[in-house]
Design brief:
With 439 residues, the chain is of the alpha/beta class. The protein has helices spanning 11-22, 34-41, 52-61, 71-76, 98-112, 130-143, 165-170, 182-192, 204-234, 239-247, 270-283, 289-311, 335-345, 355-362, 378-381, 386-392, 406-415, and strands at residues 3-7, 26-30, 65-68, 80-83, 119-122, 152-155, 175-179, 199-202, 316-320, 349-353, 395-398, 418-420, 434-436. The structure holds nicotinamide-adenine-dinucleotide.
């Protein structure tokens, strides 16, 4: 069992400290608010939350949780410190780091006098890069020690929801933490191992980004559901019934398939149907901020890919894929068609390898080339042999992921610019020649 100091006895800190103490860890809670310290030491919770009064009373009585304003003693007497202080918005919308850096300063001063290894783990919500750019410099400066070598650092976001905080702590949807050093990784793994969910140990800035992504995703879902509810109501439909039915579909509507960063959506349904719902909303005088933003953002993703090809400096680009997704020859509203047309408009020569569109032309399928209104001479741009496409191209653009092409394209990425909209391989990230659109 670990010895843990928890800095900040607010909604996160109290729940975290009490649950850790209940699980057998020795916990010291630290705050600048003497009212909260006194409450804890009297066995009372300083916040209102389901089950917390009884839990605090139980763990204080058992001697597993105490509270203090003595920062130095709390650091000295524990192996790891969790920072759970507030990070309110600054007037310009940026995250307020002053409480976090102030705690780091105090912890750093205490570390200067401590001989044994100690890990400092931020739990407050802070934007990606903050642990490395704001916390570590303060800790190093005030302790005179090197992060990762003489003391440990981690970032371990909290996902609990007030009102169900203890239940969320005990059965989280996910655990993710970032770590600088093995000592911190080990202690966070030990603390979290009993929990019934996957544990993701990652880079610190990835963990910071997961926290913001999780909260923003929740916010986006609420706003989406509200917008659907408003549009539905204006047409005499119960929006809650609509959303309940939608949410029952884990296979497609709620599938992670559509949650993978990459290229724009397209095809014969999604763009047309978003436009039509937007039109319906407009015709009933219903506001539809999100529907408009979705179409704008989709256009912007096509423009982003266009700029990536332009930035590669090529006059000849070889497209791998032109249909709206692999496995079909359907070209209707394919974002790759839009992209190719834009590049051709800029005077860039476009050749295309697409086994499905090729097959449609080769077998004289009546619908061959159907849905393409923008790329001139499509059939004559098709190249059957992938090696020939790569050889003839200045830049290769991977638009559709075809399993059998991956090895050739990975090789090509060593020799010439490759713009990848699909991610050929999970290990690949942007470097000199290879550019992934979102990785
Ligand atoms: N409230 C939530 O549901 C929730 C959930 C997940 C993450 N978070 C994040 O966790 C962090 C804490 O949120 P909260 O709601 O618990 O905040 P809170 O305001 O309830 O508690 C913060 C505590 O920190 C104390 N504090 C401030 N400066 C201090 C210092 N220098 N030294 C020691 N203690 C200090 C305050 O006195 C207060 O008790 C925030 O970054 C928040 O975004 C909150």
């Amino acid at each position: 069992m670990a010895k843990i100091s928890v800095f900040g006895i607010g909604y996160v800190g109290v729940v975290s400290a009490a649950c850790l103490a209940r699980d057998g860890h020795d916990v010291i809670a630290v705050d600048v608010d003497t009212g909260k310290i006194n409450a804890i030491n009297a066995g009372k919770s300083p916040i209102v939350e389901e089950g917390i009064d009884a839990l605090v009373a139980q763990v204080v009585k058992a001697g597993n949780l105490t509270a203090t304003d003595d920062f130095a003693a709390a650091v000295r007497d524990t192996d790891v410190s969790f920072i759970c202080v507030g990070t309110p918005s600054a007037p310009d919308g940026s995250v307020g780091l002053s409480y976090v850096t102030s705690v780091c300063e105090n912890i750093g001063k205490a570390l200067a006098d401590k001989d044994t290894y100690h890990s400092v783990v931020v739990r407050s919500t802070i934007v990606p890069g903050s642990t490395e750019q704001a916390c570590i410099p303060v800790l190093e400066q005030t302790s005179g020690k090197t992060a990762g070598k003489e003391f440990g650092v981690g970032y371990f976001p909290e996902f609990l929801r007030e009102s169900t905080a203890i239940a969320d702590n005990d059965a989280p949807g996910l655990i993710v933490f970032g770590y600088l050093d093995e000592g911190t990784r080990k202690i966070l793994e030990e603390i979290n191992n009993p929990l019934p969910c996957d544990i993701h140990a990652v880079e610190i800035k990835t963990a910071e980004m997961v926290k913001y992504t999780s909260n923003t995703w929740r916010a986006v879902k609420v706003t989406f559901a509200n917008e659907i509810g408003n549009i539905a109501k204006a047409s005499g439909i119960d929006g809650q019934t609509v959303m309940e039915i939608l949410c029952s579909d884990d296979k497609i509507a709620m599938s992670p398939y559509f949650m993978r960063p990459g290229f724009a959506f397209g095809g014969s349904c999604l763009p047309k149907d978003v436009r039509a719902l937007k039109y319906l909303a407009k015709s009933t005088g219903t506001k539809h901020h999100m529907l408009s933003a979705v179409l704008e953002a989709n256009e912007a993703q096509i423009a982003k890919a266009e700029q990536m090809v332009v930035d590669s400096g090529t006059k000849k680009v070889g497209f791998v894929g032109i249909s709206f997704k692999p496995g079909t020859d359907d070209l209707r509203e394919s974002p790759l068609i839009s992209l190719a047309a834009r590049l051709i408009g800029r005077g860039i020569d476009v050749s295309i390898y697409d086994p499905f569109v090729q097959e449609a032309f080769d077998t004289a399928t009546p619908g061959a080339g159907r849905g393409n209104d923008d790329v001139p001479d499509l059939e004559h741009r098709l190249v059957k042999d992938l090696d020939a496409l790569i050889e003839g191209a200045g830049t290769v653009l991977v638009g559709n992921h075809y399993g059998e092409t991956v090895e050739q394209l990975k090789k090509a990425a060593f020799e010439r610019p490759v713009v990848d909209l699909t991610r050929l391989n999970r290990e690949m990230t942007s470097d000199d020649k290879y550019q992934g659109i979102c990785w």
